[in-house]
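Hey, quick one: can you model this chain's 3D structure?
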Amino acid sequence: MIHIFAKQNSIVQKELHYDGDDISTKSILWLDLLNPTIDEISYISRLYEIEIPTKEEREEIESSARYWEDKDSITINTHFLIKLGEENLKDETITFLLYKNILFTIRYSEFKMFDEIELRVLASPRNFEDGFDLISKIFEVRVEKDADMIENFARDIRSLRKGVFENIYDYNEVLSRLSNLQEINTRLRDSLFDKRRALTALLNSNKVDFDVKTNITIVVKDLNSLIDFCVANMNALDNIHTLFASQINIEQNRTIKIFTVATVVMMPPTLIGTIYGMNFTNMPELNTTYGYPIILLVMVISTIITLIYFRKKGWL
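Sure thing. Here's the predicted structure for all 316 residues.
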């Protein structure tokens, strides 16, 4: 599906049927290719004499594959994140291609952000003179969405930290949530790095005018702030991991302490029982009428004395 935004006094939106539409290059502001077919991509490439990256080229991670520029065009491949559920994100590569002041976007997922941009374009046509104004606004809105994600993510971290201290979660749940949050933070950070790299390269292009560069500079500063937040969140997660490990060690030490105390407390009665279990012929206590209850009483008393001693020492 191809959506066209064209300047005709104001900006109008329509859907392109590639099998015969006549498109005036001078009037086009934005072509948004959502889940384009091979025929649609071939048609646009042929019509504008541009090279649209393949899926393999879009997913490559080296810098030269994320941003490249020639005398007529600029191509940017960058990661946008889609939220799946409460604690899951998906990376989606969006291709931005600027050619003769026209913006081409190639994407294979729905983004509410693009719907918001479309409404802004239609509502304020004077703010969008060419594709550079558009791409600047798209990244600005995307960074705002990333900031919202990071704020929600920070709340999840605080909730987990509180749960660890209050023993709300069991160990398996804590480890699962901690691992998931670390993965989300890594995805957020990598996405921000990817956007910053693309926008920094765009700032160095002589095709971009001063006003757009000013807006992009602000967006890059926001990206730097968000990256700092991601680093802080990663440190917070590491701190939770350390606290959780310490909590496990404390629990283990407490268990070992209980077994140690129980073993030591039972040593005196065990010793007494061992002595009187030898059954030698010349043991006078064996012939005592009340020898059995007396020995039991001595064993109990020895246990109580040991417990009292441990409590006074603060070992219990």
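One thing worth noting: The chain has nine helices and seven strands.
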